[in-house]
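Re: weekly structure request thread

Next one in the queue (338 aa):
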Amino acid sequence: MQVNNISRNNTNFKGFLNNKVLLRSLEKISDHGTSFAAGTSLVMSLGVRPLAIMATPNVEKENKQYASANSICSGLIKFALVEAVALPVESAVKKIDKNPEKYLKPETIKAFQSNAKNLAGSTAYRLGSQIIKLSTGFLTAVPKSMLTIALIPIVMDKLFRVKKPERTVIDSVQKKTVKRVEGEPAFTGNLSKGIGKIFDNSYFQDFLKKNQYREKDIPKHITAATDILLTTSFACQTNTSDEIKENRKKALIYNNAISTAITIFGGYGIDKAVSGVTDKFIKKFSKINVADPKLSKYIEGINIVRPAIIFAGIYYGILPMFSTYIAEKIDKFIEKKS
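Done, posted below.
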């Protein structure tokens, strides 16, 4: 009986690993890694994080409302920017994947392919694709923080009935930042050719070849760098904003800084702890799908899913209560000292 049960369980597991829905999902995540991360953040930032923040004890109600509004605005703006910027970049890279001869020099294709059957099978090329696609989140971090700050007073007014300060410059801020997002025709048209020139660059090729075996770590490194830039930009924007009450700024900045710091350190720690399990899973997955020409795409998708879930789970699920509470205490302590 035990032998039969083990055999049946292995068959079921094997069936899961080459399930068409799973494979298609991993391929989509590989093609749209930034979109997947933004979608995960959107769901968590609109629901889980605000609920956790509002449930935090011994914190002033308005501080909790500002932190919740920041979470909602951040999720919405991040997703909107992904739709406006990341999707065209992801589509452009996909065009190169399908038709590299049209966008890359012959010597570039030869350099990347090496012993691989095709360009998609090149570890160095996949690394470059990941960097280009995932870096859109980093490049849009500053406008994202500007738009988030502009949207917070609106959410505070509509959702919590908290009015913004009398002096306002929100209209001018919105016009400047929205114009920057809408005025991006370069992301369409000849975008694939522009990205192709990046791949043609010999220095970029050398970098990718030297770091190609770090492919699975790239998503978490870019995520961490993006979070650091975003938090820094948000702190600067919050400190100079006329839209947010002066007595609420410091608590909001501390909340973001604490959340980001713990998320990055905790994320790297958890990712390292589960990397062995992930490696075993990928080996088994690869063995079962060895004949599938899209295997490299699926593995890339797995390496994107892991850090996205870990970082989002920590930032939006585990930390809100802790960071909100600690930020409140730090703010009060500094007020007493000054």
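The radius of gyration is 22 Å. Residues 1-12, 168-189 have pLDDT under 50 and may be disordered.
Next request, please.
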